[in-house]
Amino acid sequence: MIKVNSKVTINAQRMKQLTSAAQTALELTAEELHTEIVQAQVVPRMDGALQGEKMYVDTSGSGNGTVAIIHEGPYARRLYYHPEYHFHRGPWSEEYKDKDGKVHRVNHDGNPNAKAHWFRDWEPGGSKEQFAPSKFKEHYRRLAGL
């Protein structure tokens, strides 16, 4: 008969460090993904709000392993799910009349790669599906000292 004894010592400080590194790496990955999407110029653009101040990273759930890229505004869902919408892929302008009847022209810049479902390239099966996992791994290794 063989008798085996073992003793396990958990390094609580190191566990906290690894958990913190994972949370920070997740937040950094989300920020980089946000930047990547904006630079890819795939978000429909009229005045820039949908990819500017109305698009942000929500890290409030990062302690639970969840982050989100949020598009604020009621029109974001419509644009995302309706590819039949006319996306302005180049510069364009529009005219409107003010309350005095004076005509004004507003110039807009479009995004050349604007499309519906603009997150798809970074989702599983998309052409850039490895972007987020590789960025997370890169950040986690650095932050955890691995």
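The above is record 1. Record 2 follows with the same two-line structure.
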Amino acid sequence: MKILVMSDSHGFSGTVKSILKKERSCDAVIHLGDGGADMLEMNEYTAGKPVYQVKGNCDISAYNFPPKLISYIGDTKFLACHGHAYNVKNDLGALFYAAKENGCTLALFGHTHIPLKEQYEDVTLINPGSVMNRRYCIITKHYGGIEITHCQLNDED
């Protein structure tokens, strides 16, 4: 199972499209906010795949995305959020505790625009970086666990 995770596209729908085209083999897509509208016309690239979206601090109120999502990648329970409500620009503690309280071993967040993978106890915190900077990540679920790969589009993409 291969999951595409992106965040903070802020109107760069052309870059979203390029990422989706490059990563066509993904089984699902998660957008972590601040650019929810950028996903609205991407059905050609996401058809038949689950698409999960959460609301960022810059997403207008007309979009009814949840502020956070708790779900599974295989048997790995994860929390997905934009991150602003957990003050992730200053500290990752609140996000870590929110993941722990919900029984999650993976916490996906955006907001800072900076790619990150950090382990705190049994929780892995992942920020894919910003689509504005052509960054995203791929989570690959294997029988033995998960693999996180941070990616960046190059000039040919």
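The two ends are 23 Å apart (CA to CA).
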